[in-house]
Amino acid sequence: MAKPKVLLLGSIDHEPARKEYEALSEHAELIEPKSKNRADFIKKAKSGALDGTVAIYRTFGSASITGGVDEELVSALPKSLKFICHNGAGYDQIDVPACTKHKIHVSNVPGAVDNATADNAVFLIIGALRNFNASILNLRKGQWRGNTPPPLGHDPEGKVLGILGMGGIGKNIARKMQAFGMKIIYHNRRKLEPEEEGGASYVGFEELLKQSDVLSLNLPLNPQTRHIISHKQFDQMKAGIVIVNTARGAVMDESALVAALDKGTVSSVGLDVYENEPEVHPGLVKNEKVLLLPHMGTYTVETQTAMEKVVVANIKSALMEKRLVTRVPEQNGIAYDD
User: Fold this and answer.
1) Cα–Cα dist 41/300, whole Å
2) pLDDT by residue (tens digit) across 101-159?
3) pLDDT in tens, 157-193
4) Phi, psi of 216 (to 5 degrees)
5) At a CB cut-off of 8 Å and minimum separation 6, what does 181 contact?
6) Which pTM value belongs to this model?
7) Which SS3 state, helix, strand or coil, does residue 279 take?
8) 145 is a catalytic site residue
9) What number of CA atoms fall less than 13 Å from residue 317's CA on the CB side?
10) How large is the greatest C-alpha to C-alpha distance in the chain, in angstroms?
11) Which own/partner pairs from 173-177 qualify as long-range (CB within 8 Å, at least 24 positions apart)?
12) In angstroms, rounded to a whole number, what is the distance separating the alpha carbons of residues 17 and 275?
């Protein structure tokens, strides 16, 4: 009897995870695509070249070959496919309803990304509060702090940190910023149980905008959260607010952010994610009040190794148990095919 196939879309870059993946060859035929673009990938999938594939190991970067996992792509994949295991906490590249319609179960990598992404947010919060970016740029130009020194920064102690999206990353940021003396408030789809809040206080969305000295965006991107922060929301914020985004770029309207910076509503910003990566809005690039990173939230050896191992664990569970370890919450309650 032929072994089931596992398709690798992308690469596994760290040896410990790669060895665990290769060990799955005992249970499955491990295959890789020969296509270099979406059209050819879909053509080959429709021709039967991927028949027998039951699970896909997918990376964020594989979109350069396949594009997003949408209805068109899912429809072309073999009927044998039951599992897509995505390497990332965010999975906005995947149309989960389309996968569910085709009885494909999807997993992501929650938890493993929390520490590194939260550390990244801490760096951006402190850097934006202290106005470090302008002086870093001037120092590299040989101008010390600048011919006209930047405005004085602010200490985090005593400031209100508002967290929009109090999941694993949001809770990790809250815990770390409490050590800097910040008061934490948050808004979520639901209020957390007291033991989950860790001393943070739940407030409504508008109250979060009005009360926060620093606003950290930590919510997933979906049709409901796209541009959840735009012109109307900036008008509700404290004058001089600091904004940090380590979630997904499109949860915030970048054009509205540029306008709020120009108006002075927003005093400084720390960004790791952008609406149209790798493109960055020119109004953000030229503004010295904006501290920019090129999507480096999980860019550590330890975190990326851990993430890859979670994906391999999902693939192994799919093969051996016909179940996923970390299935996405939208599919909770949906029965597996035994």
Assistant:
1) 31
2) 999 999 999 999 999 999 999 999 999 999 999 999 999 999 999 888 889 999 999 99
3) 999 999 999 999 999 999 999 999 999 999 999 999 9
4) -110, 125
5) 156, 157, 158
6) 0.92
7) strand
8) no
9) 18
10) 75
11) 173/118, 173/121, 173/122, 173/125, 173/216, 173/218, 174/198, 174/199, 174/200, 176/118, 176/119, 176/122, 177/122, 177/125
12) 31
**For residue 311, which amino acid is it?**
V
**How far is residue 271's CA from residue 252's CA, in Å, rounded to a whole number?**
11
Q: Which position among 71, 277, 302, 321 bears the catalytic label?
A: 277
- From the list 130, 154, 248, 281, the catalytic residue is 248
The distance from CA 4 to its chain's CA centroid, rounded to whole angstroms, is 31
Structure tokens at 267: 């005093």
Q: Which of 7, 168, 18 is nearest to 86 (CA)?
A: 7
Q: Which residues contact 322 (CB under 8 A, 6 or more apart)?
A: 82, 336, 337, 338
38, 295, 323, 330: the active-site residue: 295
277 labelled catalytic: yes
C-alpha angle 12/101/189, rounded to 5°?
Answer: 80
